[in-house]
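Lecture notes, unit on protein representations.

Consider one protein chain, 335 amino acids long.
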Amino acid sequence: MKCAIFAVLLMCLMETQGNQLSEQQMNSLFKIFDRLGSALNRNKTMTEDGSGKNLYVIKNLSLHVSFNIDSIDNGSEEVAEAKSADLTPNIVANISDLFERITKLESILQQNQKPMVEEIIVSTSNVETVPEKSEWDPCKTATTSGLFKAVPLNQTVYCEMTTFGGGWLVFQQRIIKEDRSQLIFNQGWDKYRTGFGTVGSDTEFWLGLEALHQITNSDEYELVIELKDKNEKYGYARYSQFKVAGEGDKYRLTVGGYSGSAGDALGTSNSMPFSTYDRRNYSPECENYWDGGWWFNTCDRLCAPNFGVGPYWFRFTYTENTANGIYSRMMIHRK
């Protein structure tokens, strides 16, 4: 503590003399500091408090100490000691007075501390909470079925909140009326990539391959495909694993873990790239036969929900009169 005090006093004195202290002046100052140390040791209350505030008080005190440093340069050692002896009581008295004021100030601050903290807590509690960043899939937290904005995609999506426990994002829907589709599904690569149709609860649409890629790569997803045949018989195919790769990998499909009532007509498309009439990533050219894009693995007797005249699902939509059904809805759910 003494060393810190002496360093502050020495710094202040050197500042007043422009950092010009002779060896004799330095020696005399050290003797003065020794006497000051003895006086400070008698002032136990002051020296036992090692806070920066006390050092600041001592620094200010040193600036008001009235002795002429030039007299130390020419005067004898005895003169310097006499001056320091005269100054010591004044310094100690000033220290005691300043310490008493600091003690009173600390008491006032402690009394006001609790109301100040309470006021800060009340003020911060009134600040509006900033909402978390929007997820790729708003259906995970939706409470009712309807349209929601997928902000990162800048797209509107439809969330199904009643079927299969809710939380499903619909990415394909076919509704055949008067024996024909209201929307042409024989689209090119760009349309299948960005999406087409009007997203809604009772409309036909394809959300887009890029959206599927972004969403299914943000977390683990499962797939459900709902179907109705010509006689409006309902069936579904559920897959516990579903993911779509990026465009650089031709939106390749990863699918598996079938369960349901419509039969597994999609399992053989696992690891297959997506194909359209203007981007044939599989041979033979199934997209010409089925009039729509899909993860084709074979052109015969499996699945093609985007079939031009209506969704087709092997052994489910096929009847005596037709091979296609009247309804399909494809949804994904974050696990």
